[in-house]
Amino acid sequence: MYRMYQKKREEHESILILLESKIYQGSLILVNQNHPIQAPMSSKKLRSVFPEQPQIQMEQESAGMLKKLLQEIQGEQKAKKEPVRKEVQGKIVGVSGYRTREEQVQIFENSLTENGRAFTEKYVAFPDCSEHQTGLAMDLAEHRPEIDFICPEFPYDGICQSFRERAAEFGFVERYQEEKQSVTGIGAEPWHFRYVGIPHGELMQEQGMALEEYIEWLKQFDLEENPLKIKRGETEFQIGYVRAQGKYTRWKMPKRETAFSSAENGNFKRERTIKISGNNVDGFVITMITTEAEGRKHETEKKLWGH
Predict the structure, then answer these.
(1) Is 189 a catalytic residue?
(2) Measured between alpha carbons, how far is 277 from 14 in angstroms, rounded to an integer?
């Protein structure tokens, strides 16, 4: 994905070459009418989420995280033995995941015919401006005998609310909220969840930001001079923004001891990895992840990557 050149061994520094095409890929890309999709999702990177609905797919990392979240939520419900309304089976089902451009065109045109322009432009994205074409979005519904494809029921109670309350922990956000309509340009969609990755889901929730606002907010952080530092359990995160500089962007990674350290510390081992996402606007968001406790490394990585 990214080219890396190692300088002199004693300097312990690396230069990362970020290609312009990568601005348009990754879990933090902003897709809307002002920033349409530039890099279509490859079908090879798609995975099914629901065993009973194999046709509903997502990008592989987000699919893994959604599966894990659903398993935990539904397991908690069974453990609590919560009462379930007769007309509802206490289950979350998928409604719509990844869509091709052709499918988005068809959905948009059908809605225009059936619902009119005002409704369609409020709830259905224009082709190439839909998050569903990224493979990072999923429309969910509470299981009912009849489910509306455009506006499915995903209420603020029961198992749906349990899902909503823990979504950010697994890298998901309720993308189109009522109070953010002036920012997103999309009507409230309590059923539409977008994968942005860990820890970005929690950060967006804590800051009360839509993705449009979050992308701009991150631009104040530079990994070398002023990184955003947070800690979640045994895992530390350093986040920074790198502005694209044309076809090739050279980024000097911090010295090895603060970037890719793997030094023993008593019974603990520090492992550091890096994730790079374009923002689909003008640059890259770099997230460096340090796992401290060797005994919990596997558990942390399972949550980070959804294995």
Answers:
(1) yes
(2) 19
State residue 113 phi and psi, 5-degree precision.
Answer: -70, -45
Amino acid symbol at 273: T
The CA distance from 221 to 280, in Å, is 18
* pTM score, whole prediction: 0.85
Give the whole-angstrom CA distance, residue 69 versus residue 302.
12
- Residue in the structure block whose two tokens are 């909220």: 177
Please tell me the predicted confidence (pLDDT) of residue 260. 38
- Name the token pair of 56: 């509903």
Alpha helices in the chain (DSSP H): 60-80, 101-115, 117-123, 158-167, 181-184, 200-207, 211-217, 256-259, 297-305
pLDDT for the residue numbered 238: 96
- Report the alpha-carbon distance of residue 15 to residue 153 in Å, rounded: 49
Catalytic residue among 59, 61, 189, 202: 189
Question: For 88-102, 135-149, 208-222, which range has the lowest pLDDT when averaged over its residues?
Answer: 88-102
